[in-house]
Structures are given as structure tokens and as C-alpha cells.
Protein: Phosphoserine aminotransferase
Amino acid sequence: MTRVLNFSAGPSQLPLTVVQKAAAQLLEYGTSGQSVMEMSHRSSTFLEIVRETERRLRSLLQIPQNYRVLFLQGGASLQFSMVPMNLLKPKGKAGIIHTGTWTKKAIEECRKFGECVVLASGEADHFHSIPKDVIVPQDLDYVYLCENNTIIGTKYKTLPECGHVPLVADCSSCILSEPMDVSRYGLIFAGAQKNMGIAGLTVVIVRDDLIEERPELPSMMSYAVQVKHESMFNTPPTFAIYMLGLVLEWIETEFQDLKALQSYNQRKVALLYDYLDSSALFKNEVKKEDRSMMNVPFMTDDPQLDAKFIAYAQAEGLVNLKGHRSVGGMRASIYNGMPMEGVEKLVEVMKRFEEAQAIC
Amino acid sequence: MTRVLNFSAGPSQLPLTVVQKAAAQLLEYGTSGQSVMEMSHRSSTFLEIVRETERRLRSLLQIPQNYRVLFLQGGASLQFSMVPMNLLKPKGKAGIIHTGTWTKKAIEECRKFGECVVLASGEADHFHSIPKDVIVPQDLDYVYLCENNTIIGTKYKTLPECGHVPLVADCSSCILSEPMDVSRYGLIFAGAQKNMGIAGLTVVIVRDDLIEERPELPSMMSYAVQVKHESMFNTPPTFAIYMLGLVLEWIETEFQDLKALQSYNQRKVALLYDYLDSSALFKNEVKKEDRSMMNVPFMTDDPQLDAKFIAYAQAEGLVNLKGHRSVGGMRASIYNGMPMEGVEKLVEVMKRFEEAQAIC
Structure:
């Protein structure tokens, strides 16, 4: 087979050794006589997979003991609702820092359940920068932000000072790409299909004191119910949890810790930004200090030339480089599963394309 | 490898050829250069997988044109809430036929959103039979039932006459086991991890006229939103959808249609019921006319002997025969993925155990 380089924003390229291990184990996990896909979620073998997956996640992210880890379904979009449904007090309010499409959706969902104050917005700047020095009123139930914007390619490098107000962060496209100080957050959530595995699993990390019984909510939407049942109020997405375990094992084996992985990711993305900053053809419009390490949008000044480049790259085995439909241009998502060689190849292809254009 | 016979109630045994095909394609799907797990859900290759999966499902179940098919997450338990949230009118009411654990949960979730009338209950009979001749008041927003009770092992053989009231059915443990007249239902839902594939996918089949915009609901919980976005309001559980496609392809290849599959399933389960009815040791307590074709609980008169049998069977490679914790005893779930040889082996092991007990 010729493996493509997949720059999709998610679902996205997995480490090859992870896919190979999954393939090798697919017919039989260990000596269980069955596929992980077939296992009862209450069997001792599967429960051991869950325990080991949570242990690895806790170890890599250094999750403090007063946080629970949940393996849920529904993606970040369901969390846009679950967060206000569980965290908004009666007549309370949330504060959101607006940085693009995903916070817009989060605001819309939040307002179905209560007041949502936009504390700061990057809209005037087309979201090309992250709002700084945000003042957080101390009467909020929580402050919400999207830590890495997958579409625009921005990333918080420092978190806002929230005082006593719990910080809730959508970390779907940056979790596990670098170390994070979990103790600064009240709640973190992330879809798995970018840096952690495959679609169909959502990881929630929530601080004990934010878990409140909400008997009026659908049981499946209550953090308290999910915590009480250790993510098994009903059948969890078993195979996706197993895949997360394989990805975590790969990180431990290849990098040992997230500091080393961060260093690798920084070197990967520097290749691309350095080239973009030197290119006469391609540009990235994000404020340098707010650039994402995971998602790098870029474009020429001509949409037709963009389309030509996308086709050119595709012919070279570089797929899913088309930018999000809301912004156009190109986007290279270079999550943990994208190796250095993939980014090197991308830069090489971009250079060659640029040289060919210069000759035309 | 020695493949166990897995009688789990779900996740459950898949047809071996389905697991083999998934394993063969896991590193590369077709000539795509990537695993299905890695594919963008908006890529043409994956969209073709979704279209083909829906086409096969529509063909096998003969779903009429005025029904939409949704590929969602959250399992039946999330549907327990989504159904009333979407189908209950303001100050309206639902009617439920109570047949055990799963309708109890559905009643509890429904009552968070409105009135829920229990039209009939099998409780006095320990749910060993399905209530018959239920009168359906015509002022209900919908009638709800669980068509096959996974825990007790009961199954509706005829549906209640609902008049103009839409019928909503939880078909998690019987869908695709036999033909069904979809036009008799307003809405059908089913978790995939029993007869259709793996955990993390929920199939909803809903009639057009029941799809109402409900802007007050979380977007992910609105059938109208999910229909409008063709199950891609956000990233769907891509790999689980692919697995459903493989199971549907297997049914088409092995049986052509659900009538032939039903006939096979009937012959499979008859082996087990015939033996149970002749056994002096084991018994099944369900009223004969209401017996399930998919889940067969059985027990001796002695819980210690039950435990001994479960261990004896396990040593023979027959796993997950323990009954649900709420009822004890044993349970053999024999979904589509369990071959005739598996049930033959089970009956053989039961006979041997019974003979050994008689000698003791």
C-alpha cells in the first residue's frame, strides 16, 4: 500500500504503529478468543482496558486526584449543551471568550439554558488573534473558551486569570499535544478524533466540586450520573476507548511524556511556519503569537491558485488540505499522528509549487 | 486462535467474516491509502460508505421513502430522552407499555419532560409475558414500547393497534433479526452493538411527519437538526457506521433477505427452547408465545448450581452466559452473529452438564 499523508482536521491520521497494532489485535485481543469490538463492556478484560486507558491518560496529563475522567459520546457539540445544563446555576450566567465558529456554537447552545455573557471577542479581527487581558467578573458560574481553533488556527498560549470562577475549555484539537496544568481548569472536554484516537468518543475531565446532581436532566446528560456509573450508565463506545488506549501507549513508548511530544510538535510546525513566513506565494494570517501548533491555515491571494495547489498536492499523496468551507484556502492539520516526514514532504511540495508558479 | 462462543447481551459476537474483513481493510480501505478510522467524515470515500450503508439498511428493512435514517450516538438510553423531548407536544402525553427494566428507564426519562401514562404493565407477572389487547387512547402523542426485552427474554409477536397514534419502539435487541413492517411505526431506534455492529452507534428510523423543529432543544438532541444535517451536525461515529455496513453486506451475502435470516434464527433458537422444554434441570420462565428469538434466559432451581454451570460452560469456551444481575441465572444471547454451531455447542454442553448432575 501507499499510505497517503492525511492533513484532515479530524477524523485524522493515526500513528501507523497504532493502526498496525489494532489490525494485529482485531481478530483476537490477547488470548481472549474475541475481538475488542465484541467484548461485553462489563467483562473483566474490557474493564481492564478502561482502567489502563484512564491510568495512562491521568499519568500523561498529570490529572490531579480531585478530577474525574469520563468517556462519553456525542462529541464537543453535545458538551456545548451539557456544560451549561450542568454548570449553570438557577438564574446564573456563563462568560464566554468568543474566538470563532466553535465558540459561536457554544454560545448558541448555552443561551438555550441561561444567560451567556461574551467577555471578549476576536470577531473584529476576523478571529486572527486571541483576545488578551480579559476581565473575568467573579459572579459568573464559569468562564468558557475554545483553547485551539481548528478552523482559524489560533491557540491560547496563556490562560485568562479567572480568580474563583471555574474555567471550562474545549480542548478538542490541542489535548495531548503538549503538557497542560489541569488544576487551572474546572472542566476540560475533547473529541477523540484529532489527537486521541477515533470519532465516537469524547473525553471529559471534571473537577469534583463541579459535579452536582441534576435530577431534572436526561440521565445521559448529567455529569453526576456519568461519574456515579464510571461512564457506564449505558454501553460506552468500547472500541473507541480501546483505540484511545493504544494512542496513549504509543505516546508513552515514543515520547515518554508530553514535554517531549510538545518539543517534537513544535519542531514539526516550525518547519511549516518558517516556510510560510519566507514564501512569496503562501501566507498565514494569524497573529504570530497566537498561532496554533496543530492547525495551520494558509492561502495564496487567488482562490483558483489555491484549488490548483490542492489538486497538485493531492497528486503527490497529500490529502485533505482544503481549508474549512467558511474560510477557504488551505489548512494543514498536523496532529500527533502526523510524523515529521509528513510536514517535510508538505513543505517540499509547497516549495516546488511556488517555484513552478514563479516560472509560469 | 481459539475463538470463544460469546453469548453476551451486547456488545456481542460478530460474524467471523465481518471481523476478518474489517481486519483486512483496517490498514487501508480500498486504495484510499488510509484506514476508515482516519478518514474525514466529509471525504467522498467516507460519504460513499455512509450512502451505501443507508442503502443496504433501507433495502433489507424495506424502509418506506417517507422515513429518514439517522446514525447517532448515545445508545438507546439517550433515545429515552430524545423521544419525549422531540415528540411530546406542549402539555401532551405519552403512553408506555411497561415490560421491564428498559421501559422503566424510558418512563423515568419521559416523566422529566411531560406526562407519561402506563397503558399496561407486565409487572404482576414478573414481566414473563407481554401485555395483550392494550387499548390505546387516541389523545396520546405517541405509544412507546420495547419490542424485545433483553433481560427477561420476551418479544412482541404482534404490535398493539395504535390507530392514529404513532408507535415508537426500542428495537435494540431485535432489529435486523427478522423482517419488520416499518410503516407500522412512527419511530424505531436501536443501539448497534447487538445485531448491527459495534457499540457507539445508534440507528434511528423516523417518519417525516414526526420531525418537528424544536429550537429550544440542544441541537444534538433534535431530530430535525440531525435530519437536516444528514447525521453530520458534527462528526458521526465513522468506524461504527462502517462496521454496520459490513454487517449489512454480510446479511445480504449470506441470507439475501431478512426472511431467510429469520428462518435461520428461528431454527437456531428452537434448538435451545426445545432442549429447555425437555430438560429436568434447566427452565425458561417466559410465556411460550412471548419468547424472544434473541435472548434466552434460563436457570436451575439452585443459584449455586447456576454458578457451577456458568463456570463449566466457560471452561468449554462458552462465555458471558451469566444472566443479568437483576434476575440472576443464565442468559444466552444469540444474535445474528451467533452461528447455528454455537447454539448446538451450547445445548450439547447443557445436556452434558445435566447428565453429570443426574449421576451426582
